[in-house]
């Protein structure tokens, strides 16, 4: 049964399996995932790892590389990307444990992986909470919050977020180890184990998900109230439109986070009350919930690119794929640090690169040049 346990070592063992106790009276003969199923989980896990590692590395680089990207919101996004990347890095270790059905890396690495994984999950939700509070200050108190909404303050707050996350996961630092029962990397709770396990599930769900989510919802409720009241009195200024774009991006990131993590926490809470029967179906459901939490770390860089013009331009610049739109009044080459006041002709555009391809846009009567890095 799944009641506070992982029934066999051949289940996909991800770092949050420490939320469950392993029961010593379970039969080790029942193996829900075998053969092709184990291979499938390994392929999915490694795909998520590669996509997440690439996307978050790119997000980290562009924030550090371009001065224009060092806004308050982007500093928090930088910390979120670092947390996502460190979270993703633990996936190959846990996939190896799943394939081999035991933990081959020793006690020290078990503790390191478990601690890093837990800490960065907490850091993610705390970063989203801070970003939501920042959006509240920017929209509801735009003048009074100016002295607090500064990159230096954002860096101090980010440091505090990491420190708090480490304190919160001290139980994982202390009790994570290689278990004798299945030789798996998990939590070794003292007696009474059931009490410790239940307390930790509730503690993790409250501090690491539902508590911050309540604060986030309150922030956006106040933002909605403010925007409705101000919208009725005044038109949209350029600053207000910009704030709305940033707020929309943060809201979408938060919503995706909740959708990706909610199934996992629901399973944990249900698991405290109801004995979940052991079967391939329930094992598959648990695997889906686990891999969905990792998929969230892959989704975030994609969201940055779709929802932020600056991130999209920076990504194009780093990937050496840039779209240059030549107008009578200026040029947009996708470089977030480039000036926007140059007068550029179609001839100048074509001379930007010997590899450029130029074509005429009949709808806008503009010459569009696409420069592609081929090296």
Structural notes for this entry:
- This protein has eleven helices and six strands.
- 63% of the residues lie in helices and 7% in strands.
- It is of the alpha+beta class.
- It is globular, with a radius of gyration of 24 Å.
- A hairpin with a 4-residue loop joins β5 and β6 (366-372).
- Strands 4-3-6-5 form a four-stranded antiparallel beta sheet. A two-stranded antiparallel ribbon has the order 1-2.
- It folds into two domains: 15-309, Up-down Bundle (Rhopdopsin 7-helix transmembrane proteins), CATH 1.20.1070.10; 320-372, no CATH class.
- Residues 55-304 form the G-protein coupled receptors family 1 profile domain.
- Belongs to the G-protein coupled receptor 1 family.
- The chain crosses the membrane at residues 39-64, 76-95, 122-141, 153-175, 195-225, 246-277, 283-307.
What structural keywords apply?
6 strands, two-stranded antiparallel sheet, Rhopdopsin 7-helix transmembrane proteins, 375 residues, single chain, alpha+beta, globular, 2 domains, 63% helix, four-stranded antiparallel β-sheet, 11 helices
Question: How are the SSEs ordered, and which strands pair?
Answer:
Blueprint: H1 36-65, H2 72-89, H3 91-100, H4 106-140, H5 151-168, H6 170-175, E1 176-178, E2 185-187, H7 193-231, H8 238-273, H9 280-307, H10 309-318, E3 321-327, E4 330-332, H11 346-350, E5 357-361, E6 366-372
Antiparallel strand pairs: 1-2, 3-4, 3-6, 5-6
Strand order of the largest sheet: 4-3-6-5
Q: What would you call the structural class?
A: alpha+beta
CATH architecture of the largest domain: Up-down Bundle
Beta content comes to 5-15%
Mean pLDDT value? 74
Order of helices and strands: HHHHHHEEHHHHEEHEE
The CATH topology of the largest domain turns out to be Rhopdopsin 7-helix transmembrane proteins
Number of strands: 6
Number of helices: 11
The CATH top-level class label of the largest domain: Mainly Alpha
For the record, give the distance between the C-alpha atoms at the N and C termini, rounded to a whole number: 55 Å
Family: Belongs to the G-protein coupled receptor 1 family.
Organism: Sander lucioperca (Pike-perch)
Transmembrane segments: 39-64, 76-95, 122-141, 153-175, 195-225, 246-277, 283-307
Subcellular location: Cell membrane
């Amino acid at each position: 049964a799944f009641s506070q346990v992982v029934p066999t070592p051949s289940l996909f063992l991800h770092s949050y399996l420490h939320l469950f106790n392993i029961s010593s009276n379970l039969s080790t003969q029942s193996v829900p995932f075998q053969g092709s199923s184990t291979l499938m989980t390994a392929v999915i896990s490694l795909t998520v790892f590669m996509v997440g590692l690439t996307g978050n590395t790119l997000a980290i680089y562009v924030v550090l590389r371009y001065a224009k990207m060092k806004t308050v919101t982007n500093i928090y996004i930088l910390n979120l990307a670092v947390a996502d990347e460190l979270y993703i890095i633990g996936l190959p270790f846990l996939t190896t444990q799943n394939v081999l059905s035991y933990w081959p890396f020793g006690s020290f690495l078990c503790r390191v992986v478990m601690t890093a994984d837990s800490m960065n999950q907490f850091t993610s939700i705390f970063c989203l909470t801070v970003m939501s509070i920042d959006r509240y200050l920017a929209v509801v108190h735009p003048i009074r919050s100016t002295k607090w909404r500064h990159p230096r303050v954002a860096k101090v707050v980010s440091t505090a977020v990491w420190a708090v996350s480490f304190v919160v996961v001290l139980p994982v630092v202390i009790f994570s180890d290689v278990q004798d029962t299945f030789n798996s990397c998990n939590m070794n709770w003292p007696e009474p184990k059931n009490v410790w396990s239940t307390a930790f599930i509730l503690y993790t769900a409250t501090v690491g998900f539902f508590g911050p989510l309540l604060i986030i919802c309150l922030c956006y409720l106040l933002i909605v109230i403010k925007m409705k009241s101000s919208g009725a009195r005044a038109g949209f200024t350029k600053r207000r439109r910009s704030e709305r774009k940033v707020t929309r991006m943060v809201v979408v990131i938060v919503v995706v986070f909740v959708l990706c993590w909610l199934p996992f926490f629901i399973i944990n809470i249900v698991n405290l009350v109801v004995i979940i029967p052991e079967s391939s179906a329930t094992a598959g459901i648990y695997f889906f919930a686990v891999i969905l939490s990792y998929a969230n770390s892959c989704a975030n860089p994609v969201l940055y690119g779709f929802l932020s013009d600056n991130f999209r331009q920076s990504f194009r610049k780093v990937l050496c794929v840039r779209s240059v739109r030549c107008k009578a009044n200026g040029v947009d080459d996708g470089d977030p640090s480039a000036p926007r006041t140059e007068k550029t002709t179609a001839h100048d555009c074509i001379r930007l690169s010997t590899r450029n391809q130029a074509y005429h846009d009949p709808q806008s009567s503009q010459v569009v040049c696409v420069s592609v890095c081929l090296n």
